[in-house]
Every structure is written in structure tokens, then in C-alpha cells.
Design brief:
Length: 266
């Protein structure tokens, strides 16, 4: 694997968002079209049940990698066009493997959810067709209902914590493949080291982009689609803050103001 170095604890959350917006403005509608098509494709195939793993490897990961490719080119001042969103398929094998592995928690959660739903159905059937719901009847029914609710809460909390850890681990895997042509395992290992060295910034960036998307959702419910490019741009800047360009000398601590504008230090 190449000797790719990274900065620790350098993600400027508000800087990622503001620089991302500055990057988007000159070609906003191009980035909007790219992100919208990717989201529509992902949402369309996601309607097919039981295919989370396949979708992650064959659709979500390659299109996401293509979006990173476009944004990283734009940061370097290189020309971009709509067709470049499919560049992720040119590195299909490592991108697909990363997508498959990233999708595993979703598959596990789906299986657990099905198991809980089947347990609830079995509990209802065990009542002998007396009708009503879990919150009516004898103490046994109430105990079963309480146990299922508690189990749902525990599963949800565990899944959230695990999901955050998974997100931190894989945060930079796809752009590393796109930019440095790493294989899947090396990209995941390097992403994990860099991600956990910048865990606080990644979590804050995730929360901020979620708030931005929620705000967009409240604008006629379709505003969310208009802020998705901003979220991708912000994550691309987070990646660039952590991983400097190869043709720039690496320094242990980023110089003051290095990330003040998207044309600086990129």
C-alpha cells in the first residue's frame, strides 16, 4: 500500500459546509443533477426487499464513489461533467467489496427486525384469537408487550451506536479508492485509522448535515433534495482536510487558515 499520511483531529465542521457551498455555487445545477440521479437510482432499487447487500455493492457504493470523484476534481480546478458520476464503476471490484461490507449492518438490522416482528406475531397468536392488543388483557400480555418494547429499544440503541462506529470506520474508504487506487482492504484499514483519529469531527459533521437535510425536508418536503449536494461537498472537504494532496508536502499540523477557502490547501 502507498504511504498515504493523514492529519489527526483537523476536521473543521463549519468550514466543510461553507467551503462546500462555495464549491457548489458555480456549477450547482450540475452537482444537483448528479446527486439527484444517484439518489433516485438508490431509492428505486432499495424498493426491492431483501437486497440490501447487493444494492450496497452494485449501486450505492459505485455511485457514491463517482460523486466523490466529481467533487475532488472540482476542488483541483479540473473540468467535470455529468458522465463522471459513473467513474466509480471503473474501480468496480474494490468499490463493490466496500459497498458489500458497509451494507452488512443494514442486513443484520433487517433480520433482527423481522425476528422481532415474528415474535410479536407469535405472541398475538398465542393469545388464542381473543382479539385486542398487547395493552389489553391479563398481566402476561402486558409483560410480553413490555418485553418486546424493551427489546426494540435495546436493539435500536445498539444499532445506533454500532452504526456510528461503522460510519466512522468507512468514512474515507470510497474516496481513497477513487483518488489513490487502493484495494478494498487497504482502503478500509486506512479509512478506519484516519476516521477514528478524526472521530469527533466526523460525528459533528454528520449531525450538522442531518440538521441541514431535516431543514430542507421542511421546505415543501422536497427541499432535502436541494441540500444533498451540499452534504456530499461537505464530506468531500472533510476528506481533503484529513488527506492532503500527494503533490503537497505533508506537515504534522495543518497551517493556520489552510482550510479557510476551498482553493487553499486543496
Amino acid at each position: 500500500m502507498q504511504n498515504i499520511q493523514f492529519y489527526k483531529g483537523v476536521i473543521d465542521v463549519t468550514g466543510c459546509v461553507s467551503n462546500g457551498w462555495n464549491l457548489l455555487k458555480p456549477n450547482y445545477w450540475l452537482f444537483f443533477a448528479i446527486c439527484l440521479l444517484a439518489m433516485v437510482a438508490i431509492m428505486f432499487v432499495s424498493c426491492i426487499p431483501c437486497l440490501n447487500l447487493i444494492i450496497g455493492g452494485l449501486v450505492t457504493a459505485p455511485l457514491t464513489a463517482g460523486i466523490y470523484y466529481v467533487f475532488l476534481r472540482e476542488m483541483r480546478g479540473e473540468p467535470v461533467d455529468f458522465a463522471m458520476m459513473f467513474k466509480g464503476y471503473e474501480k468496480f471490484v474494490p468499490v463493490m467489496i466496500i459497498g458489500f461490507i458497509q451494507s452488512i449492518p443494514g442486513v443484520i438490522f433487517t433480520i433482527i427486525q423481522w425476528a422481532l416482528d415474528l415474535g410479536r406475531l407469535a405472541a398475538q397468536l398465542s393469545r388464542g384469537g381473543r382479539g385486542g392488543n398487547f395493552y389489553q388483557g391479563d398481566g402476561t400480555d402486558i409483560a410480553i408487550a413490555g418485553g418486546l418494547i424493551a427489546l426494540y429499544v435495546v436493539v435500536a440503541v445498539v444499532f445506533i451506536v454500532f452504526g456510528i462506529a461503522w460510519y466512522i470506520t468507512f468514512a474515507f474508504a470510497l474516496p481513497l479508492v477513487i483518488e489513490h487506487d487502493l484495494n478494498a482492504i487497504d482502503a478500509i484499514k486506512l479509512s478506519a485509522r484516519a476516521g477514528w483519529a478524526n472521530a469527533g469531527g466526523l460525528i459533528l459533521l454528520f449531525l450538522l448535515t442531518i440538521l441541514i437535510m431535516i431543514g430542507g425536508f421542511f421546505v415543501l418536503c422536497i427541499g432535502m433534495f436541494f441540500v444533498i449536494p451540499l452534504a456530499y461537498a461537505a464530506y468531500a472537504f472533510a476528506y481533503r482536510q484529513v488527506f492532503p494532496l500527494l503533490d503537497q508536502p505533508f506537515q504534522p499540523v495543518p497551517p493556520h487558515g489552510q482550510y479557510g477557502g476551498f482553493a487553499q490547501g486543496m
